[in-house]
Structure prediction request, 382 residues.
Amino acid sequence: MSTKDYLEKDYYKTLGVPKTAKAADIKKAYRELARKYHPDANKGNADAEERFKSITEAYNVLSDEKQRKEYDEARSMFGGGFRVPTGTRGGAGGTGPFDLGDLFGGDSGLGDVLGGIFRGRGGTAQSRARRGADVETETTLSLGDSIDGATVALRLTGEGPCPVCHGTGAKAGTVPRVCPDCQGTGQQSRNLGGFGLSEPCKTCRGRGLVVDNPCTSCSGSGRAMSSQTVQARIPAGVADGQRIRLPGKGASGEHGGKNGDLYVRVHVKPHAVFGRSGDNLTVSVPVTISELALGAEIKVPTHRGAAVTVRIPPGTPNGRVFRVPGRGVRKKDGTLGALLATVEVTVPQELNNKARSALEDLRIATSGPDPREELLRRARQD
Ligand SMILES: [Zn+2]
Ligand SMILES: [Zn+2]
Prediction:
């Protein structure tokens, strides 16, 4: 018989006797059951055979004074059907059956066994692999880096197991013990007029364990804030406000579970000259009234490149957009967006005599019907 068997099997229940049963009562109960389920009396009945085996096993332990004592001690220490809450952090998850094979896998002493449950488990004993949490962070890029892509160092801060007590919450050299009030289930049941109501154990707050000597570093919580820096590659062409997913760069998984993902919210610093519109860059280019009216060739700056010459035809209206292909943002397919240059007329604030007289001549030369006549007429319509 192993300790594992002791915790999983209720021998008293198997024999249908109380825990206080005397040796003679145990013997009597066994004889009755053994006769009933004996394979000779139940030919080909597999259930009866199984039952007979467990009855015999129970009797072998309970009829031996020394073994019975060991059995009773093991069960009073852990309680029958030892359960440990799963996912006690973060709210989700109730209690699930604890894998006893995991707990008693090694031939270690009690202290080592309990230590082993908690080491590297982030303070919550669990039997199954758990995927690491997704982590969210943000970074700010220059316009150039957002266009070309960049490798950035991201500092991630999160809650993890306390490094001093390895998440057990217990002071060095001590281990938590199974909560005596809930026998490690983390749940307590109240009887309400025949209905059993289960609620988190008040003594251990649902953890199933109590810490007698709390770790001084984490005050017994088993949790600590930690930070790490990860290098993340932000792809080319990312836009302001975009959220980038970096698979496997989030919190580490537990018990062989996969890592979570890292989500990076990207902010792009405004540029002094260039703006962005989808895959295109934008720029506002000042022009004179005569350049628009007479036509001109003007120099337009490009991002990270030499200025290009744009030809403005005579009679170009203010605000017209000129498209310079290949000078925008690199798209997913590898091609480049355009630079959209908007011409904006600048009105001279100070005029010399020659300029003033030229403009007055222009006014006379271009005088004709009131240019606002149409506007004013239409404005009268309902
Ligand atoms: Zn600690
Ligand atoms: Zn408890």
